[in-house]
Write a structure and sequence with these properties.
Elements: H1 2-11, H2 28-35, H3 44-50, H4 74-87, H5 91-120, H6 128-153
Helix pairs in contact: 5-6
Transmembrane segments: 95-116, 128-149
Keywords: Membrane, Transmembrane, Transmembrane helix
Protein name: Glycosyltransferase
Length: 154
């Protein structure tokens, strides 16, 4: 969990304390602000920081669970982590943009290799070069464009 909060804090403007618990004492104004938000998949620790009210921490020692076990499965924890990263960070969009640029550059590099291969050794498979280079280049450009548009919207 500390690694997760480190990733969220490094990739967003919000700072979520890694040792903040899930139990809160909230003022009525904070509750009203949280209820006014349209989010369906809520990462509450991020929303508490995002609404912008003053926060005080009360130290306490949590007691060990006396019965039962956590209802969060690994799948739900992963979903919660993805919601936390995507809701308060542009990092996934930047990664997507960078990946798109790499794929487009890879397509151009592969195209240059195919041209050199044809000029030096005379090897050629009809249609293969244009198909692969075109797909890689334009696929990369699409990924880059989606990342840029997402960055603008996000």
């Amino acid at each position: 969990t500390r690694a997760f909060y480190g990733i969220v804090n490094a990739s967003s403007q919000l700072k979520i304390p890694p040792d903040a618990g899930d139990f809160r004492l909230l003022d009525r104004r904070v509750v009203a602000a949280l209820n006014a938000l349209p989010e369906r998949n809520r990462f509450m620790k991020g929303l508490y920081a995002w609404v912008g009210f003053r926060t005080e921490f009360l130290p306490y020692t949590p007691q060990a669970r006396t019965a039962g076990s956590s209802s969060f499965s690994a799948r739900r924890l992963i979903r919660l982590a993805l919601t936390g990263v995507t809701a308060f960070s542009n990092m996934p969009l930047r990664i997507w943009s960078g990946l798109g640029a790499l794929v487009a550059l890879g397509g151009l590099g592969y195209g240059a290799w195919i041209v050199l291969d044809h000029l030096i050794w005379g090897d050629q498979i009809p249609g293969w070069a244009t198909l692969v280079v075109g797909l890689m280049f334009f696929g990369g450009i699409q990924m880059l464009s989606i990342g840029i548009i997402g960055e603008y919207v996000g």
